[in-house]
Amino acid sequence: MKKFDFNINGDDYQVHIKSIEGDIAEIEVNGTPYSVKVKQEMKTSKTPILVRKEGQSKSADKRIIENLSPVSSSSKPSAKAIKSPLPGSIIKVLVAEGDSFKSGDVLLVMESMKMENNILAERNGTIVKVCAPAGSAVLQDADLFLVQ
């Protein structure tokens, strides 16, 4: 917290004040820790102390666990979405419905923050639906394509 150098009766002391709570100060003098009582009236801080309430209820925890549990293969959707990594405008769509693609292929080009960005395929697949045609504006996490 604070460091002071004292000279008392010709002897030098290095005092580190670690913390002060109420009228008890935790200090270190030349490397030796001490707990001392402060007799001088302490000024109170005008900054309030933040007290956090207890977190979510148990029922919310159960809902989270249910949402994180694996989905059975029968209830999984057959098509997955490729989502927009950032907001922007679609300049060119380089694939059409029914086209197959490989991992690393450029699927579309979008403009965002005055820069052209290539959207690449992360895995092999087939385009089921083009959700964002050329000229459309998309938000972050908007569906660009549905793929299998």
Would you write up a description of this structure?
By secondary structure, the chain is mostly beta strands. It has two domains: 2-37, no CATH class; 80-147, RNA polymerase II/Efflux pump adaptor protein, barrel-sandwich hybrid domain (OB fold (Dihydrolipoamide Acetyltransferase, E2P), Beta Barrel), CATH 2.40.50. The chain is 7% helix and 46% strand. It has one helix and twelve strands, in the order ββββαββββββββ. Strand 8 and strand 9 form a beta hairpin. The longest helix has 11 residues, at 58-68.
Please identify the top-level CATH class of the largest domain: Mainly Beta
Number of strands: 12
Secondary structure tally, helices = 1
Q: In CATH, what is the homologous superfamily of the largest domain? A: RNA polymerase II/Efflux pump adaptor protein, barrel-sandwich hybrid domain
Order of helices and strands: EEEEHEEEEEEEE
Chain-averaged pLDDT: 82
Helix content: under 10%
Structural domain tally: 2
Given as residue ranges, the uncertain stretches (5+ residues, pLDDT < 50) are none
- The share of residues in extended strands comes to over 45%
Short summary:
The chain has 148 residues and is mainly beta.
List strands and helices in order, with pairings.
Blueprint: E1 2-8, E2 11-21, E3 24-29, E4 32-37, H1 58-68, E5 80-83, E6 88-93, E7 100-101, E8 106-112, E9 115-120, E10 125-130, E11 137-138, E12 143-147
Antiparallel strand pairs: 1-2, 2-3, 3-4, 5-12, 6-8, 6-11, 7-10, 8-9, 10-12
